[in-house]
Each structure stands twice: as C-alpha cells, then as structure tokens.
Amino acid sequence: MRLTRRAWAGGMLGVALGGMRAGGSAANEAPPMAFEPDGQTAVTLNDPVGIYIDHKDQLYVAGAEGVDRYDSNGQRNRRIETTGAARAVAVDESGQIYVAQQTRIEKFSADGQLITAWGESGRGDGQFSYVTSLDERDGFLFIADAGNRRIYRFAGNGVYVDAIEKFAIPSYYFDVTLGPDDHYFYVTHTGRRRVERYDRNMKRVDYWGESGAGASKFFGCCNPTHLTVFKDGRVATAEKGIPRIKVYDPKGAMLAHLGQEAFPKESVHMDLATDSRERLAVLVPKDRAVRFYRIVTVEAKKDMTEKDHDS
Predict the structure, then answer these.
(1) pTM, 2 dp
(2) Element (H or E) spanning 52, and its range?
C-alpha cells in the first residue's frame, strides 16, 4: 500500500531488457539495476504492518495503536487512534484516511476526525474475515481480505459494490494496489506465487511469476506478500521466508534484487510504497523503521561505491 499515483511509460525499459524473458532475468545475466539506500524513518508504533505515502510525500504507518503520519522530512505530525489494531492504511486525494482493522474499516478526515466506519465479520457479500490491504482511487476503495480470499470494491462511504473471489491465499498475506494509469489494479496471488493485474471491471488481464528459490522467482508458501507500482509501470515485490525485495519490469522481467542479507532474520510484513521522487519505501518491522531506496543502474551503484571508498 503505497503512493500509486503513477503514469505508464516503458520505452527505455523495453530497450534495456531486450533479451530478457518474462518472469526473470535472461540466462546468465545479472540484474541491470541495484538498490541504493537513501535514508530511513524511525517508527514508534508497536507491531507496524502497513505503510502508505500520499501525494504530499507524507508517510503513514499502520500498527497496534492506530496510524502515525510523518511529514516529508520524517517528522511525526499526527497519530490517529483507532478502535483496534490497524492492519493497513490508504489516503485519497483530498487527504481523507482509510484504516483497515481485521473486520472493520474506519474513515478519518485529514485532521484525524472519525467520519464513518463499517464492517462486520462473516462470509457474505461485503463482510470481512481478515482484511490485510486496501487502496483508494476516484471514490472507490479496493480491499484485500485474506480470510475470505476476496478483493472487494466499496464506495468511499462504505457501500458495497462488488468483489472477486476464489483466490488461493494460504496465509494472512494478500496485497492490492492501484496501478499507474487508473485503469488497473494489482494483486499478490500468494498461493500461485505470482502478480496479477485486473481492469476496473474486476477482470484479470494478465499475470506473471514463477515458484522457485531463484532470485527472480517466488519461493515457498504465500509469496510475494506485498507489492507496489512505480510511475513507469515497474513493480516492486516483497517476500517472507527468504526475506527479499525485487523490482520487475511491467512484463515480469527482474530488474533489481535485494537479498536476505539486507534484512533481519525472519522478517515479515515488509510493506512497500513509492514517493514522488520514485524512491522505494520498505517497512522493516524488526528494525522499527521504514527504509528508502533509489533504484539505480549497476554502473551508477558501482560509481557511488567507489566514490564512498575514495572519500
């Protein structure tokens, strides 16, 4: 859950990736891009599990006590207390804040005042079992429910619209995010180890991903756990089991890989977002921090490393 206000563009990526096959880098070819650290924000909430970045580059973190908001300089400027532990957060263009609990959605004004709330436990239309993610666009809220294995669409006032169901979701990891051009949304189909893209008619239009331990594949049960989309259509994913972050081109060819050596052991809930500078934000709950990375070419990363060494 993340800043998904992006615009599709793909020309340079297509040229750079010429010979790569969908689902991974070409045989014997290392990823052409790398992760360059670019700061971090300390998190004060207990059990942080979700993040979002709005159009003002404000960072929102969901956790046990509710939602904390940080300005673009990393300073906390508001805490929104919820009636239960917050599982996910999203923000609309006017600054209204949607917070997911396990079976309840609460909507707040930009200054943290409760506007409305809805949700009840169950398996009927519009009922929730275990909400894990949500995103908002144009007055509609898209909600991932891992317990009911559904993606719901609600109006912003809580009126149920429709849903997609019959996903294979073996555990409580299930992410949804809106795409760069307003026409599509993306889902982590964890039991199938793939990323799926749907149109606004709730119809699947394509998917990519393979099961396996290789760098470009999704390993073990229930991966990828989280995702976000850049302005040019690149997709970033996070995994558990082998905690790692990857960036793919719009067709599923891997561009960059950050392996388990970069994260604490058994890291989970590594939610993702992007800001207006195209930095990737990664929630690392065990470090109680949100890290920021720039995605750069391997050559640029090498130059930066050499300059740091020389200095």
Answers:
(1) 0.89
(2) strand 50-53
| Superfamily covering domain 11-310 | TolB, C-terminal domain (2.120.10.30)
- List of E strands, 54-130: 59-63, 66-70, 76-81, 88-91, 97-100, 105-108, 114-118
Task: Name every residue whose Cβ is closer than 8 Å to that of residue 131 and which is 6 or more positions away in sequence.
Answer: 87, 88, 100, 101, 102, 103, 105, 119, 143, 144, 145, 146, 147
Q: Quickly count: other Cβ atoms within 10 Å of residue 132's Cβ.
A: 28
Which DSSP category does 285 fall into?
A: G
Helices (H), strands (E): how many in the chain?
2, 24
Order of strands across the sheet with 289-297? 33-42, 289-297, 280-284, 272-274
Cβ-contact 107, 82 below 8 angstroms: no
Q: Output DSSP code: residue 25.
A: P
Spatial distance between the Cα atoms of 117 and 155, rounded to a whole number of angstroms: 12
DSSP string, 236-279: EEEETTTTEEEEE-TTS-EEEEE-GGGS-TT-----EEE-TT-P
The string of pLDDT tens digits covering residues 96-105 is 999 999 999 9
Q: Which of 153, 140, 131, 162 has its CA nearest to residue 93?
A: 140
pLDDT in tens, 263-281: 999 999 999 999 999 999 9
Which of 251, 218, 211 shows the shortest CA–CA distance to 237? 218
Work out the burial of residue 124: count CB atoms within 10 Å of its CB; fewer than 13 is exposed, 13-18 middle, 19 or more buried. exposed
| C-alpha span between 176 and 1 (Å, rounded) | 7
